[in-house]
UniProtKB/TrEMBL annotation:
Residues 29-72 are annotated as: Disordered. This is Lipoprotein. Pfam families: Big_10, YkuD. The keyword Disulfide bond does not apply. PROSITE patterns: LD_TPASE, PROKAR_LIPOPROTEIN. Keywords: Acyltransferase, Cell shape, Cell wall biogenesis/degradation, Lipoprotein, Peptidoglycan synthesis, Signal, Transferase. The keyword Cell wall biogenesis/degradation applies. Residues 249-385 form the L,D-TPase catalytic domain. Residues 43-53 have a biased composition (Basic and acidic residues). PANTHER family: L,D-TRANSPEPTIDASE (PTHR30582), L,D-TRANSPEPTIDASE YCIB-RELATED (PTHR30582:SF2). Pathway: Cell wall biogenesis; peptidoglycan biosynthesis.
């Protein structure tokens, strides 16, 4: 028992002694230093502190970040000093251009960053005494697999007809529609209320209750950077788009009378004889918006389900003149040079399109087809009536006008 107690006491004493030795070593090596005296080490520390720059550099995002924004990342700021240099490179050494602000307090890249890219930043600054500070960071931007974009129409700076909606097609399925819609705003100088409608997880269109007011300007703002559209999938767009509304032109196709009346500001400016879909291939009814224009294009029946017994298209015309798309499924209003002039205004013969008399080569400006093409723009409305067919689906093309306002607003996630 005596020996055991003695050994235990020695062990405790050794531990205490070890603690004293460790403390002495960290504070300079003698009892005087541990008591707060002036040691050689403390003098070295004080001298180093005096030489340290007061400039404080901040790099965002933080070192090691991933899924960083391609719009708002790579910001460098400094307090208690001024920036002297900032270098940003990709992982392979390619330098990214950037600009230090006039007051030398901040820096940002002058180009948009790329997705799925690792960037390195090295910044240097000086304080008022000329002492230099350094900061380094590395981060990776969001990958395509973890991000989404919205492909939109119409284009920035374009002039379009009164029926042109804002249509956004997202490249990833959106499950958090409310958050994404909150990041999209559409306004117009006419003061019209604009509502957005989700057709599915990838498409959202926005429009007013009635056609846009002619001469107005519409602004689309995409503030989607960092917005989580689905689990782990973030937006990357930060963009403002404006487009103008042209003159008010709405054309009315009557398959019964086989005439089309073109109106501007509600007044008929011209009447053109037409040939709509034959009884076995009726043309959709409803309000349709011109979404594309082609001076000449190929039309093959096989692409829209019109095939013969051999599986070939019932028709294949490689130079259809003055074609304007009215639906995604293949409804066009276009010139027709292969039909006899006598059919226009007298009989419906097409596979579902609306045909106008025209010339091969689309080089005769005096034909009805050429006139209508030259006097139409993307976003103009063509209303098709009395065909006996169903109304075109609102999401078949840019044709949301075929949904009443209450239904339209019911499809909003806001």
């Amino acid at each position: 028992m005596t020996v055991s107690k003695r050994r235990k006491g020695l062990t405790v004493a050794s531990a205490l002694l070890g603690g004293v030795l460790v403390l002495s070593a960290c504070s300079g090596g003698d009892d005087k230093a541990s008591g707060g005296g002036d040691s050689s080490q403390s003098k070295v520390d004080e001298a180093a502190a005096e030489k340290t720059s007061e400039a404080q550099i901040k790099i965002t995002p933080e070192d090691g970040s991933d899924n960083a924004s391609i719009n708002n990342s790579a910001a460098v700021t400094v307090s208690k000093g001024t920036l002297t240099s900032v270098k940003m490179t990709t992982s392979d050494g390619t330098e990214v251009s950037g600009q230090i602000s006039a007051d030398k307090k901040s820096w940002k890249p002058s180009v948009q960053l790329e997705r799925s890219t690792t960037y390195k930043l090295a910044a240097e600054a000086k304080d008022s005494d000329g002492r230099v500070a350094h900061e380094n960071a590395s981060f990776s931007t969001v990958s395509p697999a973890n991000s989404f974009i919205g492909n939109f129409t119409p284009d920035d700076g374009s002039t379009v007809g009164v029926g042109m909606p804002v249509s956004i097609n997202f490249d990833k399925a959106i499950t958090n529609k409310a958050a994404v819609q909150k990041g999209v705003t559409v306004s117009t100088t006419s003061g019209q209320e604009v509502a957005c409608h989700w057709f599915n997880a990838n498409r959202m269109d926005c429009r007013p209750e009635e056609y846009w007011k002619e001469g107005s300007t519409v602004t689309l703002k995409l503030a989607l950077d960092g917005v989580e559209g689905a689990k782990g999938v973030y937006g990357v767009q930060q963009k403002t788009v404006t487009f103008k509304i042209g003159r008010n032109q709405v054309s009315y196709v009557d398959a019964k009378t086989k005439q089309m009346k073109i109106t501007q500001d509600g007044k008929v400016v011209r009447t053109i004889p037409i040939s709509a879909g034959a009884p076995e291939n009726k043309t959709y009814e409803g309000q349709m918006v011109i979404s594309e224009k082609f001076k000449e294009t190929r039309m093959n029946g096989a692409t829209v389900g019109f095939t013969d017994d051999d599986g070939k298209g019932e028709y294949d015309i490689k130079d259809v003149p003055h074609a304007m798309r009215l639906s995604t499924s293949g409804t066009f209003i276009h010139g027709n040079y292969w039909g006899a002039k006598s059919i226009f205004g007298s009989v419906n013969t097409s596979h579902g399109c609306v045909g106008l008399q025209d010339a091969k080569g689309a080089d005769d400006p005096n034909t009805p087809g050429a006139w209508f093409f030259n006097n139409s723009m993307i976003g103009d409305v063509v209303v098709v009536q009395n065909t006996g067919d169903k109304t075109v689906a609102p999401d078949n093309g840019l044709n949301g006008w075929n949904m009443d306002w209450a239904q339209w607003k019911a499809g909003s996630a806001a």
